[in-house]
Amino acid sequence: MPTDRFAALTDAAIAVLAERGMRGLTHRAVDTRAALPQGTTSAYFRTRKALIEAVVRRLADLDRADLDEARLPTEAGMSVTAIEDIDAFAAGIAALLDRWMSTERDRVLARYACLLEATHHPELRTILRYGEASRAQSTAMLAAAGARHPEQAGAHLVACIDGLLFDRLAGAGSSSAPAPGTAANRADLTIAIATLLRAFAGQRPEVATSGS
Amino acid sequence: MPTDRFAALTDAAIAVLAERGMRGLTHRAVDTRAALPQGTTSAYFRTRKALIEAVVRRLADLDRADLDEARLPTEAGMSVTAIEDIDAFAAGIAALLDRWMSTERDRVLARYACLLEATHHPELRTILRYGEASRAQSTAMLAAAGARHPEQAGAHLVACIDGLLFDRLAGAGSSSAPAPGTAANRADLTIAIATLLRAFAGQRPEVATSGS
DNA sequence: TATGGACTTCTACATTTGTAGAAGGAGAGA
DNA sequence: TCTCTCCTTCTACAAATGTAGAAGTCCATA
Question: N or C: which end of chain A has fewer CB within 10 A?
Fold first, then answer.
């Protein structure tokens, strides 16, 4: 079974996506990147669409695996109501983010490229399952912490944490924040995330319930 | 002077970028989108690189104009230390974000596409000035509010707010959050942003309450 | 050993794309 | 009126790309 061939090509495609963007994702570029004979990618993924869909599926799987593995703090009887637990929890998320923006940089950049692509290609929306999974975790955690509107706060929290990731990978933070993969980065992220956790989990002061 | 022609082409390029992504950004696609004769874009921007650079410059200008105009709350003698001021301030930012994700959707999607592109094309990094400008504003505001580390908190705050924007435009929020352009969306954003402002200004609510 | 089938590699080819330059046109100044 | 110059439009063309199918290779089973 050529399942390893599929995996190699899909991983190469993710790398190409990160290095050259959607525009650089061609059958031949993937062949080259995978160090396989020209034509291989074209044989395994007859159309470019098929290739992209495989990438999206792979990314969703990898993300889900990471999230499943990372939810240990809540499982381990840790409660987000205690100060030290919040900090530990924040450090855990920070470590994951730091890994995503250093070791797994390609993967995350590829995911952003696919997210943007999904904007005008609805059939790729499966990639949004990542967002939904992390949101569910976040909501459950905030509910356990006694947040008043865990559903809403969970969504906000995930969006903000993702914002920290994007900022450091592609935004202004990429030139000003501590370098990914360093303890300084993890420390900085931990501070930000702890602040977020306390804010969204805590009994925040009264807040306007209507917009303009 | 064909300066209006340049503008029309650049705007068309932004629309193409939003609708078809970096991959769809070709000279001919811009011609079509601008309803101008084929070859026009190629005549005005001899290379594709020149076209993208024009887009990046335009985006940076538009963003800066928006930010300059939007900073009125701080200028108007508003202080972020008072509850009602925080809510008003949050509503102001929420209104801007809501406009960005509805009326100005194309622009923002194009910006994200360019940000991703800048990841592997350093000469496009000028687009990061947007991030720097908003961060400076944010830092100044938090400093005025008495935050302990306004520089750091300002960076975190901007990253989070941008995360809310990205989430609703391209992330999971695009299918679950209130629709852009509605009062419900502005209200939801206001709640999130007010929470963030309070948290990063150092007025994070104590989290002492335990259990339910 | 021969054969069938799957996997792999190579080649072909119509389109699309980037880029350059030629052709066309309109207005200012001699 | 002629001409020069600038802007506009059209055309050409090499390179890259998506996609299909042919040719080649390997291995298990009859």
Answer: N
Question: Is strand C less than 7 A from the beta carbon of B28?
Answer: yes
Interface of A with B in 67-86 (CB under 8 A): 81-83, 86
Domain residue ranges in chain A: 1-46, 57-201
For chain A, the farthest-separated pair of C-alpha atoms sits apart, in whole angstroms, at 63
Contact state of B172 with A195 under an 8 Å Cβ cutoff:
no
ipTM of the complex: 0.92
Distance measured from the CA of protein residue B25 to the C1' of nucleotide D16, in angstroms = 16
Q: Which residues, other chains included, contact A146 with Cβ-Cβ below 8 Å and sequence gap of 6+? A: A81, A201, A203, B209, B211, B212
- Range A57-201 classified under CATH 1.10.357: yes
Model pLDDT for residues A58-99, shown as the tens digit of each residue: 999 999 999 988 765 555 556 566 666 889 999 999 999 999
Nearest Cα of chain B lies from the Cα of A94 at a distance, in angstroms, of 13
∠ CA(B92), CA(B98), CA(B99), 5° rounding? 95
Helices B105-118 and A105-118 cross at an angle (nearest 10°) of: 150
Q: What is the pLDDT of residue A82?
A: 64
* Amino acid of residue B109: L
Q: Is any Cβ of chain B less than 8 angstroms from the Cβ of A198?
A: yes
What's the full length of chain A, in residues?
Answer: 212
Element (DSSP H or E) covering residue B115: helix B105-118
Query: Measuring CA to CA, how many Å separate A92 from each of A72, A73, A98, B113, B207?
Result: 9, 8, 10, 30, 19
CA A59 – CA B172 distance, rounded (Å) = 15
Q: Does B169 touch chain A (CB under 8 A)?
A: yes
Q: Which one, of A18, A37, A19, lies nearest residue A27 by Cα?
A: A37
Please name which of A195, A164, A148 lies closest in space to residue B204, comparing C-alpha atoms. A195
CATH topology of domain A1-46: Arc Repressor Mutant, subunit A (1.10.10)
Q: B147-170 pLDDT, tens per residue?
A: 999 999 999 999 999 999 999 999
Taking the CA atoms of A162, A167, A173 and A179 in sequence, report the sign of the dihedral they define.
Answer: positive
